Amino acid sequence: MKLAIGCDHGGYELKQSILKHLNSRKVDYKDFGCFSTDSCDYPDFALAVSESIISGECDRGILICGTGIGISIAANKVTGIRAAHCTDVYSARMARQHNNANIIAIGGRITGEAIALEMVDAFIDTEFEGGRHGKRVEKIAKVEEKYMIRRNMEMDERVTVISHPLIQHKLAIIRDKNTGSKEFRELLSEVAMLMCYEVTRNFQLEDVEIETPICKMNAKMLTGKKVAIVPILRAGLGMVDGMLKLVPAAKVGHIGLYRDPETLKPVEYYCKLPTDIEEREVIITDPMLATGGSAADAITLLKKKGARNIKLMCLIAAPEGVKAVREAHPDVDIFVANIDEKLNDHGYIVPGLGDAGDRIFGTK
């Protein structure tokens, strides 16, 4: 086992004692600093030690600052790190045995040398017990993964959350279980129209000469690039009319898919597209992006039919769905009004809005 060790100026003296102890035990380690009592910033050393563990260069780590608190907080910002701030031997042992901690954080100004060395020994010599504790650590990892996915999505230039106040207001009414089908359809169409502004933001313009009642001038108009709106049946139909109000010349295709219960592979039961689909800007509509399976399959089908420029427009999405589509089709831009918390065990988005198709058409 190889240890990584780091400290700030508040932990420098204790680190020197711990290094002597590790040498006496013939423990392999790498010292990431600091190397004096000059004032420095503990996050720098927390990051260096944490990255060495995540990369596999080192197996576990020891971090020391004045209290052990700040440096542990900093280390725990790194995905995959479980840094335990310990003040006694028992907690150091339990951090390994029950929590599978890969870093121990110690306060150089609050923990005596003798206890600190015993804590280090307990941390080095104790193995993770697993069992019921493994289940709990796995739950921590899943929480971490969920928020990591969300952070990545927020930074992804190909994922756009359209947070305009009018859209968010109408989305709240759409979510309400007391909203009837008629109002639901009307609001969904309105939100689709509002979202269309953002989805078409990068459409190209060209200079044209027009004559106003006053004089001639050069103005900007769309280049004439053709558009196709392709709803995924059946719920995607509810977004089409709103978009056609802004892009009335667009042609409308339709895609229907289901999954074979035995092979779990997508089966196309309906596909009707403009004959020149390869020349068009394609906007796929579906109110819900849950697992991402249907959307990814629809995009695959469109690409096979020749479509090259594809965008996906959904009302709400689960992080799992966004992740699935981005992995399957990294070239496709995704536009949503909100990314919700998660999928439940039945594959519904939480908090979501229920089954969009049933709410649009008044079915059960």
UniProtKB/TrEMBL annotation:
Residues 161-363 form the Phosphoribosyltransferase domain. It catalyses: UMP + diphosphate = 5-phospho-alpha-D-ribose 1-diphosphate + uracil. Pfam families: LacAB_rpiB, UPRTase. Uracil binds at residues 349, 354-356. SUPFAM superfamilies: PRTase-like (SSF53271), Ribose/Galactose isomerase RpiB/AlsB (SSF89623). Its cofactor is Mg(2+). One of its GO terms (biological process) is D-allose catabolic process. One of its GO terms (molecular function) is uracil phosphoribosyltransferase activity. Its EC number is 2.4.2.9. This is Uracil phosphoribosyltransferase.
